[in-house]
Amino acid sequence: MNKGIYIATLESHSGKSMISLGLMRTLLGKMVKVGYFRPIINDVPKGEKDNHIDTVLSYFDLKIPYEDTYAFTRSEVIQKTNDGKSGEIIDTIISKYKKLEDEFDFILVEGSDFSGEGSVFEFDVNVVIAKNLGIPVIIVVSGQFKSWEELLGNQQMAYRAFRDKEVQVIAMVSNKIQEENLEPAAKNMRGFLPQEVDVFAIPLIDTLNNPTLKEIVKALDGTVLFGHDFLDNQTGNFGVGAMQLRNYLTTLKNESLVITPGDRADIILGALQANISSNYPRISGIILTGGLRPEESILKLIEGLSDIVPIISVQEGTFAVTNKVGAIKSNIYADSIQKIQTTISIFERYVSFDPLVEKLTNYQPQGRTPRMFQYDLVKRARQSKKHIVLPEGTDERILTAAKRLIDMDLVELTLLGDFDTIQKTVAKIALDLDFSKVNIVDPVNSPNFQDYAETFYELRKHKGVNMDMAKDRLSDVSYYGTMMIYKGHADGMVSGAAHTTQHTILPALQFIKTKPNVSVVSSVFFMCLEDRVSVFGDCAINPNPTAAELAEITISSAESASAFGIDPKIAMLSYSSGTSGKGEDVDRVREATAIVKERRPDLKIEGPIQYDAAVDISVGKSKLPGSEVAGQANVLIFPDLNTGNNTYKAVQRETGALAIGPMLQGLNKPVNDLSRGCTVADVYNTVILTAIQAQGI
């Protein structure tokens, strides 16, 4: 069975890294263990690592020793070739690859970079390596600065070279294509490639093509005077500030890099002021040339500004610096998290490798790893996009997560709040949020406000609610967002970053209400541990559930697990296992287990059972021999909120597990609660869960 894919190109800066990052993300969503291998890497200074390897290993947290991820440096290959030892090169590459093949389910192999002379030689070496490894190839060709004839010629040459060596080409990617030429580019490839070869075209993305301030500092050997925290800013374009300020301001574009002599205080201060003005685009940074620095009074003024972009001093003159900046080729580094996420997002938008990977491997993993689980969440959310409302639209974490969700095209979003306030918050945190792709609604001033208030009045007038009270309630973002769901104007809601759990859930209980035959709203966390995903419930809602309530929580949790691809094996946790324990608390768990068995005899359940017996196979066999759940439980039901909440947090902190949730269960339509200490990742993951719930699972 084939266990690898080789990504090859025939030129430098083809965008091969995008394919590697995106494909690695795809593979990790389908397989337990994925390896990464580069037969030949660029020469690197002593003590440093190859950037491609460092980025992939770091971002995806691959547990592979660096030395095992490559075979030779470029200079070593040239030396051995000159010494007539080409066979030794291939033998070593095969040996190192096979070692990884024995340890991993699949290997992503990335070819060389063509960073030096002799690119034709290098391309031939990549063909030979792929042939000897016996794995298929994906060819990546850049369309930047090429005519249609040049692009087509390069593609045909590359395909023929692999075909003539009987290496299977399974896909070809035309990268860095102008947006309007994507369809013609795909059509051109299809014109000479057989049908079994997939073709993809990816547009030129300026934010990936342009260098960051960190890359510019390194290339110019510059000194950072201000803005160290924003060196990951990417440049949109660059221009020299040599004219008078009033004329120069008209040339500024979004993410402009300002290049100006260090004694031009007017340009420096004017650019900084424009950066914080809502009437001018943001700038990415300022380069001060000629080794000149502003006077102390100017430096003091800059230091007191609240929003400072990177300001960098360099020795060379303006003309030389401008030429050097224009020649910088941007790369992706291990610490460029935003750039990596953008790269993967673009890949997933334009490349559909899922069917391709299915063809390559008939691999059926046992269980579900966190990588697979998270990959599946994103895939399922994208399959049927839902409309999610976020009531806390001015919260920085909400806005940052919203950008990521929109960039990945996972959901339609509505943010509640004042537009000007949201816009100012976005500017404050330098977030490149596309306002054309998100709905912003100020509840009181919305066209639906009167209708929503009247609807609430009709629903709650039997509880003594009058129209004034209804309007007061609907001016609250939680009530307004919940009413959007009730009226069918949104599919789900996520709140709680700045509100209590009760504030989030109460409106839902009042008029969204619970599902038929459900009386208890409960919650689960999906705990992404090192090698498995477990469901923890209830860790957020019910303080001291009765036996009947605990049984209902259990059934809801089992259904949630099944809905998200986890075959439930339920452990009803207590301080005792089996029939040995006595006492009110353990009896309650025992009674709840009996209720579940009566209502759902199809479920695999054990209880009462201790945590170690539930998850450790050796302890489980010892305490409950013959149990089909003990030692392999993946749905763990805690007897009360105190135990559940503390346990999930302890597991999260001590093991580094990712806790996705809480996801609420039992409501007619999905409303989910965040904690006020939530992170951007918590918001992102909870919105995805909510979107999938809204698909009618």
From TrEMBL:
Residues 372-691 form the Phosphate acetyl/butaryl transferase domain. One of its GO terms (cellular component) is cytoplasm. The keyword Transferase applies. Residues 215-325 form the DRTGG domain. Pathway: Metabolic intermediate biosynthesis; acetyl-CoA biosynthesis; acetyl-CoA from acetate: step 2/2. The keyword RNA-binding does not apply. InterPro entries: DRTGG, P-Actrans_bac, P-loop_NTPase, P_AcTrfase, P_AcTrfase_dom1, P_AcTrfase_dom2, Phos_Acetyltrans/Butyryltrans, PTA_PTB. Its EC number is 2.3.1.8. GO terms for biological process: acetyl-CoA biosynthetic process. It catalyses: acetyl-CoA + phosphate = acetyl phosphate + CoA. Its main location: cytoplasm. It is found in: Cytoplasm. Keywords: Acyltransferase, Cytoplasm, Transferase. GO terms for molecular function: phosphate acetyltransferase activity. PANTHER family: PHOSPHATE ACETYLTRANSFERASE. NCBIfam families: PRK05632.1, PRK09653.1, pta. Involved in acetate metabolism. The N-terminal region seems to be important for proper quaternary structure. The C-terminal region contains the substrate-binding site. Homohexamer. This is Phosphate acetyltransferase.
